[in-house]
Amino acid sequence: MFSNLSNRLLVFSIFIIGLPSILGCSTNPSVSQENASALVEATIPKGMVLIPSGSFPMGGKSEQAYADEFPVHKVTVSSFYMDATEVTNAEFAEFVNATGYLTIAEKDIDWEELKSQVPAGTPKPPDSVLMAGSLVFKPTDGPVSLEDYSQWWHWTTGANWRQPEGPGSSIEDRMNHPVVHISWEDANTYAKWAGKRLPTEAEWEWASSGGNAENIYPWGNEPIEKATNKANFWQGFFPYQNNNLDGFFGTAPVKSYEPNQFSLYDMAGNVWEWCQDRYNISTYEQYEEKGIVSDPKGSEEYYDPLEPLSPKHVIRGGSFLCNDSYCSGYRVTRRMSSSKDSGFNHTGFRCVKDHE
Ligand SMILES: [Ca+2]
Ligand SMILES: [Ca+2]
Question: What does pTM read for this prediction?
């Protein structure tokens, strides 16, 4: 839905034109029940849970479902391990300390790369416009068109995972919050370092449902307005009035809310989570045509008709900004996309690992 390319073009267009656009153990008979349980526990990687294999009808199951959630199609996923929580600032800091990795939001914009994505002959903007940054949410003063996200997303030089709201902000008291301003490539690099990978969209949907195909939300079907103890989302009127009934305006520490049936936290809300799949509005139609039902891995081609030139990947689960009037991202089946080189202060990730 948003992209760094768009971000860059936004910055660029403002500069050039002045336009305001804008994630068993084989029991030995000689082993006691207690020890057997301990053995099972020992095989599960730290911080992860074992998601069992299963078959389910993937796709929209409520009146709020969008066109890209159809057709509903049968999918089978193999068992896998999944992080119980979103990757936290503390975990990401461990990765950066070990590797010296710089996220995309910490790097200046490459004019040579951008040049191929703007009209021929477009002059190079000054370096000040190409400085490293990311998009930061700021509430509006009152109601605005929900079509115009430039009203609440602000390009902020110096915004990155260490300074989520830009210079002067810090994660010092947020080390157990999910890391944000993470691009798809950043998430993949972390996952590889951790010996893990990003989830497929099908794995994510199965995991979020807690194994219950009837669940509209990870907690079941209790309406969102009564679910303030279930997830961190937006109560009130987006994007100008947040009643914070769930206790948090921005990100919340992971595990602040009840887990789902698979003991996964924040599968709804807090931060959007990257999946490995390319986003294509027609992915489910393609599966049905090809008869793909086992461990689908997404489309071979990127395609979002709203931004056809932007290579996007799937994000899932919604964020602290989600509200029924806007994106309803906390629904189990909701598909959203973001450009692979984008970072936002409402987007993070969690990892999975194959269960051999
Ligand atoms: Ca909230
Ligand atoms: Ca989440």
Answer: 0.89
Task: Give distance in angstroms: CA of 50 to centre of ligand 2.
Answer: 18
Among the bound ligands, name the one nearest to the CA of residue 346.
Answer: 2
With respect to residue 48, please indicate whether it lies within any of the assigned structural domains. Answer: no
What separation in Å is there between the alpha carbon of 340 and the centre of ligand 1? Answer: 26
Ligand 1 midpoint to CA 218 (Å): 17
With a CB cutoff of 8 Å and minimum separation 6, the contacts of 340 are 183, 184, 185, 311, 312, 313
* 49 Cα distance to chain centroid: 19
6 CA distance to ligand 2 middle (Å): 24
Q: What is the pLDDT of residue 356?
A: 79
Whether residue 315 lies inside any domain: the answer is yes
Location of structure tokens 């914070």: 244
Q: Which ligand is nearest to the CA of 329?
A: 2
The pLDDT tens digits of the residues spanning 74-122 come to 999 999 999 999 999 999 999 999 999 999 999 998 888 877 767 788 8
Domain that holds residue 189: 4-14+85-280+299-354
Low-confidence ranges of the chain (pLDDT < 70): 1-42, 117
CB 253 within 8 A of CB 177: yes
Supply 301's token pair.
Answer: 């081609």
Residues with CB under 5 A from ligand 2 (ion): 266, 270, 317
62 within some domain = no
